[in-house]
Amino acid sequence: MSQKSLDKPAKILGILGGGQLGRMSAMAAARLGIKTHIFCPEKESPASHVAAKTFEAAYDDKQALKEFAKSVDVISYEFENIPVETVRYLKKFKPVYPDETLLEIAQHRWKEKQFLNDIGIPTAQWGKAKSADDIQRVLDQWGATSCIIKTTRFGYDGKGQAKINSLDDITSAWKSLKTDEAIIESLVQFRYEISVIVARDLFGKVQSYVPVLNDHKNHILAKTTAPAPLDDSLLKRATQMAEKLAKRVGLVGVLGLELFVTKDGQIIANEIAPRTHNSGHWTIDACSVSQFENHVRCVCGLPVGKAVHHSDAVMINLIGDDIALVEKHQSKANANIHLYGKPDVRAGRKMGHITILK
Ligand code: AMP
After folding, report:
1. C-alpha radius of gyration, the chain, whole number
2. Per-residue pLDDT tens over the stretch 75-118
3. Residues 129 and 135 sit within 8 Å (Cβ to Cβ)
């Protein structure tokens, strides 16, 4: 579905979603003299604290969506589970970037893997399952006894996935997903998990931040090291993959591409984040133009900024009780503390992050 394009740079940015990514985007927008209006169902969302206006309503509330659209110049989103229908509806009023092409791909793991493979980006071997029998059949075809199964939609931070270590696990793993549709993926024996954040503006110009190394704890990103301490040629290949994806999907804004690096140096795509990404938070403190500023620039019709870093950095996520680490870091000159203003500390909840400049 085509849409109206921006005829001049936006002065008011609308963001669907009220989490920390929206919050940090709104803060970057403010620095550029751009106001942000947030649309999200939650009360007291982290983004609402720093936005000029918040529309608190459901994503299918057409009246509220229309009012929101009329109040802004351009619209973006900060999380991938925004209904595609919402984006289609909003496009009647104002441009939405990135448009729903990327959103639809990133929301469905079959579409995501198929798209990546179609443009020549390798992924784990994968298959489709609508029942436990399908898993058995696919594993037989592969001659394998282990795999990972994931719900096609709404999975994040390891939620909605199960590991199958032997054929005996199939039934219980399938039941645990509580879904009628899943992807079956071969188990990648990866050595590293890396990611690339790429930005593309309305004029087609592309910038990528240096690939970073990601360490997870309980499937949640715990630490990002920037740049990833890996071979230059490997980093270059990872960057080329992300840039190819950005161009082929007609990106306007920022996306993150999560990748596995195998022991023999192969790079395999795992997941696309159609938005700014947790592994790009270090760019706020280590780059003149952060991923958030670049996202704002690109969707608002400004030229993409140089994605170069002036410092190496390590970003530590503050998850749940990790928030206590703030005390230890607050007297350090090279520690940049970011808190998201979430009222209750909960296990597994991203409360903030600290970027240590090297
Ligand atoms: P995801 O929700 O797809 O990002 O997966 C969460 C985590 O599970 C990843 O960060 C990996 O550590 C692990 N994982 C996902 N897919 C695979 C796979 N095909 N092989 C091995 N590990 C995987």
Report:
1. 20
2. 999 999 999 999 999 999 999 999 999 999 999 999 999 999 99
3. yes
| Whether the CB of 124 sits within 6 Å of ligand 1 | yes
In the chain, the domains with their CATH numbers are: 12-96 (3.40.50.20), 125-185 (3.30.1490.20), 190-357 (3.30.470.20)
355, HSE (Cβ side, Cα atoms, 13 Å): 19
CA of 86 to the centre of ligand 1 (A): 29
Cα 287 from Cα 305, distance rounded (Å): 10
Give the 3-state secondary structure of residue 129: strand
Stated as kind and residue range, the H or E segment containing 174 is helix 170-177
Note whether 350 and 339 are within 8 A (CB).
Answer: no
Instruction: In whole angstroms, give the CA distance from residue 19 to residue 35.
Output: 17
Environment class of 248 (CB within 10 Å of its CB; exposed 0-12, middle 13-18, buried 19+): middle
Question: What pTM was computed for the model?
Answer: 0.97
Q: Is the CB of 219 under 6 A from ligand 1?
A: yes
